[in-house]
Specification:
This protein is an alpha+beta fold. The chain has two domains: 79 residues, Nucleic acid-binding proteins (OB fold (Dihydrolipoamide Acetyltransferase, E2P)), CATH 2.40.50.140; 243 residues, no CATH class. Helices cover 61% and strands 11% of the residues. The protein contains eleven helices and seven strands. The strands form two sheets. The protein has a five-stranded mixed β-barrel with strand order 2-3-4-6-5. A two-stranded antiparallel sheet has the order 1-7. A hairpin with a 4-residue loop joins strand 3 and strand 4. Helix 4 runs parallel beside helix 7. The longest helix has 46 residues. It is elongated and about 85 Å long.
Length: 380
């Protein structure tokens, strides 16, 4: 019987480099919003409702304690008498966001504009980190830190570069390279199997990009398929909207790609180590049996994820009685179809690409297992 054993992976040592970055992102989420536009008397503040005063004529008044201890009077938003949608009521004790501006008399006027949602998000982030650690121990924490750092790459590198007018596709490819290193090497360690997964993922990203460019042109997509893009065109005309559409496609497909490539490379590695007599062709054939099952579930996951994100759009189209043929002709829908199908094609092709690379690398069990990989004892 083979002897299964796990070697010490040095997880703690590999975890520390990215922890400061992860905590910096959490600190940014936790920080209260500073007053914006204070120079011209307009902006936003945060505080806690300490009392609500009902008045004979709307709007009602909220007494809000600000971060510096001051208590200010803020108008509560009034319900739209012509709307059938009712917003939840503000309550005493809730943290809220205030918009302030000079009033008619010159005195600063405050209006409650929204709830402060960051505390709930921080609890959710903490729960995610805890569950990751309890289930996967230090690999789970590395995954958490890697996710935080990947988001930082998007927010601190990709977005500013695109806003500066850089080519969104090129910038996204550079950012994807950094995300892949974090998502694969940092979480799963440096080994031949993770190298095969990294190479397979990046090749699949290139294929996805080529397909995205091709079908974006064939479908005459402009990048103006939603309101966000229209607002962006006015606020930042230097941004290439069609390129932004492709950049979103690449980043959106990346998570599923790394999932399937890591599994395929690991399957090939284990098969080669269990039976060194297997040729590259045999390794490829057996690993593809696993890959086909994985593809079926992941493509379904990807399609349902996009469908879930666009559920309100589907309902709106149904209410508007738009025919199915015309719905697919709308750029808003056609863009999502291109996103979903191009991403799914890239995901499917990632399986044979990664499996082939790993089979060539691991045939005959030629490569040593890295520290921390599953080792099998053989008796010949």
């Amino acid at each position: 019987m083979p002897d299964h054993r796990y070697a010490h992976s040095g997880a703690r040592g590999r975890l520390w480099p990215l922890l400061p970055l992860a905590f910096a992102i959490l600190a940014t989420l936790a920080a209260g919003a500073s007053a914006q536009g204070a120079a011209d008397g307009y902006g936003y503040l945060e505080g806690q409702i300490v009392d609500i005063i009902e008045r004979t004529s709307p709007p009602n008044l909220a007494l809000v304690r600000l971060g510096d201890g001051r208590v200010v009077d803020a108008d509560l938003p009034m319900a739209d008498p012509y709307s059938t949608f009712e917003l939840p009521e503000y309550r005493v004790g809730e943290r809220v966001e205030l918009y302030y501006a000079p009033g008619p008399t010159g005195r600063t006027a405050y209006v409650v504009s929204d709830w402060v949602r960051r505390p709930a998000l921080l609890w959710l982030v903490g729960l995610f980190a805890l569950v990751s650690f309890l289930v996967a121990r230090f690999k789970g924490l590395r995954a958490f830190a890697s996710t935080a750092a990947s988001l930082a790459i998007v927010i601190m590198f990709i977005v500013p570069q695109i806003l500066a007018g850089a080519n969104p596709v090129f910038i996204s490819l550079v950012g994807v390279g950094g995300i892949l290193v974090l998502a694969i090497y940092f979480v799963h360690g440096l080994s031949w199997s993770t190298t095969a997964a990294l190479a397979g993922t990046f090749l699949s990203v290139l294929v996805t990009m080529a397909l995205g460019i091709t079908f974006t042109e064939l479908s005459n997509l402009t990048g103006l398929g939603n309101e966000d893009a229209i607002f962006l065109m006015s606020a930042a005309p230097q941004v290439a909207l069609k390129g932004l559409l492709l950049a979103g496609l690449l980043i959106g497909a990346l998570g599923a790609l790394t999932d399937i490539t890591i599994v395929q490379a690991s399957v090939v590695r284990e098969l080669a180590h269990t039976d060194p007599s297997l040729s590259a062709r045999d390794l490829y054939g057996r690993a593809m049996n696993v890959g086909r099952d994985h593809v079926g579930s992941l493509v379904n996951t990807l399609v349902l994820a996009y469908t879930g994100a666009g559920l309100s759009l589907l309902i709106l189209l149904n209410v508007s009685e738009v025919s199915l043929a015309r719905a697919f002709n709308l750029e808003l829908v056609a863009g999502e179809v291109v996103h979903t199908l191009v991403g799914s094609i890239g995901l499917v092709l990632a399986v044979p690409i990664t499996t082939l690379l790993a089979a060539v690398l691991f045939r005959g069990d030629r490569l040593p297992l890295a520290t921390g990989e599953l080792a099998h004892g053989h008796h010949h």
